[in-house]
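User: Before I run my own analysis I want an independent prediction to cross-check against. Here's the chain; please return only the structure tokens and, at the end, one sentence I can use as a sanity check.
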Amino acid sequence: MNIGIFTTAGGGGGIFQEYIKKHSEKLTLIELEGLPTIENLRKLKENNCTAMIYISDHQESGAFFQTIAEQGVKYICCCSAGYEYLNLEAMKKYGIKGANVPEYSPNAISEHTVMLLLALLRKLRTQILRVEVNNFTRQGLQGQEVRNMTIGIVGAGRIGYTTLQCLSGFNPKKIYVYDHLEKEKVKKYAEYASLNTLYKESDVVIYHCSYNEENYHMVNAKTLAEMKDNVILINVARGPLFDMTAVLEGLGQGKIGALGLDVIEGEGLLKKSKNPQKCPLPILEKILQYENVIFTSHTAYYTDEAIRNLSAITVENAYSYAMTGNCPNELVK
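Assistant: Structure tokens:
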């Protein structure tokens, strides 16, 4: 089975080749130049691809997936856990199966989360900016300690649970968790609470939940009003969870004491920017004017171990399709 991969997916085919070799008798990876635009999708048919490895920062129209089907592609393997960019309804309509990587190193994102929290508590960005201009004063740099904080975590799946374990070593005053599904192992470290209680009691709120239509802009003017003054917010999940206009207002009013983001709504514009002198996302440019904000470019997952996991499972998904026409990580029922 020939698998097409455009050079934008996961940085190209290089990270998958080691795992493709294990199944070289069944799988061949074809690297295709350019973006996976409707015009470029013809390259899939030209190279006899019946599968493709795909990732995107937005969801394409049904016509896009119809065109993929017309090129003879039967399977799409997305090299990520999130798959909101896949139009599952269109894929089902045009007979395309799809799979994701539901689990990979949770430590990658959890450790990044802890890094953001510690950096915000110790005003690291301000310290770095001062040192760069030879300003070594300590005024305004007094930090806080995790052990004096009440922490709320929204979403206690594998990543949220790993964050709980990491933070427990700092012995915070209390950890609240909000999740639809309660697990006994989580109760060892945290107390389940309603979202209202978590917002009301927490000094820090961390988001580890998946994104769907129901929680679009779950952080907004109304929910911010329910939180403590000077609350610290960290989002390492999905950008659309935060209404950034409300967040910007919260920063300006001092309602938000510090903000750590690895994701932001509209972040696809950042990758397409060709002008290094100007931020292509106006709302990001505005929030970065506040020194109590730290933004990283969707790199929380980006470790050697996580990339090995993502690459290996993506290829295993493709191999399952090649051998049986089905996949244990199937998304299109």
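Sanity check: The chain has two domains: 2-104+304-324, 106-295.
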